[in-house]
Structure formats: structure tokens, C-alpha cells
Specification:
5 helices; Aminopeptidase; acyltransferase activity; 7 strands; GNAT_dom; 7-stranded mixed beta sheet
Length: 171
């Protein structure tokens, strides 16, 4: 008798940093430039989400309410940053602070072709520094899961973030 394949377990980790002094920063390499998109462009965020997230099965935003997503991107509580390497989009991150105190790294990642180049730690360091530089920030948090890049959780921890909650689903 053959048993049906079991659904794989999905683990989600929630991490936080409560003190900017905890940041173990890695400097941006000279060939990696990061710019904030000071003029919101929903279509750019959608493109970046697809570019970076396709390999990690980011699909929830593509299937959801596009007007709600647009409103989030265009709100004063949201900021988008793009990383460039030699003129190409190397990655991006989005910060979201709806309560004026807790900044979520809403999305973070590298574009295909830029993984393994040593950009992950420096870009995450920059994301954390930008979050802490946002006036009123008291805490930075993020969540990641077992579908993400195998080094994602270690990168968050290496930069000084700590796990405060873990969920396992799919059993």
C-alpha cells in the first residue's frame, strides 16, 4: 500500500530588533547602490514583487485586491528602496510603519542572478538602518518562512534580529 504524499510542513519565523545598537551591519559594496523611490509607483512595486518573489512563490499579492495593495504602496506609512548593480535591479525592500512606531520589512530580496554575490547581508543591513532612521521607530520586525532562500533566516539573525514567534503549518 502506498501512502499519499504528505503536505510539507511550512515554518514561519517572526523576527524583531528592538534596539538599533543590535544591528551587526555589513557595508554596501561600492558596486551596489540603493535609492529610495520617493514618488510611489504601484506598478514598480508590482514589478519588483514579481521579479524578486517569483522564485520564492510570492503570489498572494498578485491574486488579491489590487486597489488595496495600491493604497498601501501610496500611503505615507510605506517606503520602497531599490538596489542597483551596474545599472540593473539587484534587489529591493519595502518598509511599512502603519502605527508610527513598529517598522515592518514588508518585502526584502534579491533578483535572480544576484543571489550568491554577497549582496544579501549588506542590503539587509541597509534596510534595517533605513528602518531605524525613520523618526519614531521603536522596533523593526520581519517574517520569513521555509519557502524562502535557505540563507534568509540566518541572514536576519546574523544582522542582529531575534526570533520572537514561530508557526508550523501543513501537518
Amino acid at each position: 500500500m502506498t501512502l499519499p504524499d504528505a503536505e510539507p510542513l511550512l515554518t514561519t519565523w517572526y523576527l524583531e530588533m528592538r534596539d538599533p545598537a543590535a544591528l551587526d551591519a555589513r557595508p554596501l559594496p561600492p558596486t551596489l547602490a540603493v535609492a529610495e523611490c520617493e514618488i510611489p509607483q504601484f506598478e514598480l512595486n508590482r514589478f519588483l514583487y514579481q521579479l524578486v518573489g517569483a522564485q520564492w512563490q510570492w503570489t498572494d499579492k498578485l491574486e488579491g485586491d489590487q486597489q488595496t495593495w495600491r493604497a498601501l504602496v501610496e500611503s505615507d506609512a510605506h517606503r520602497t528602496f531599490v538596489a542597483w548593480h551596474r545599472g540593473a535591479v539587484a534587489g529591493y525592500f519595502e518598509l511599512y510603519r502603519p502605527d508610527g512606531r513598529n517598522v515592518e520589512i514588508l518585502y526584502f530580496g534579491l533578483a535572480p542572478g544576484f543571489i550568491g554575490m554577497g549582496f544579501g547581508g549588506p542590503l539587509l543591513s541597509h534596510a534595517l538602518a533605513c528602518a531605524w532612521a525613520w523618526p519614531g521607530c521603536e522596533r523593526v520586525w520581519v517574517h520569513t518562512c521555509s519557502l524562502d532562500h535557505p540563507a534568509a533566516l540566518a541572514n536576519y539573525r546574523s544582522r542582529g534580529m531575534t526570533v520572537y514567534h514561530e508557526e508550523v503549518s501543513g501537518d
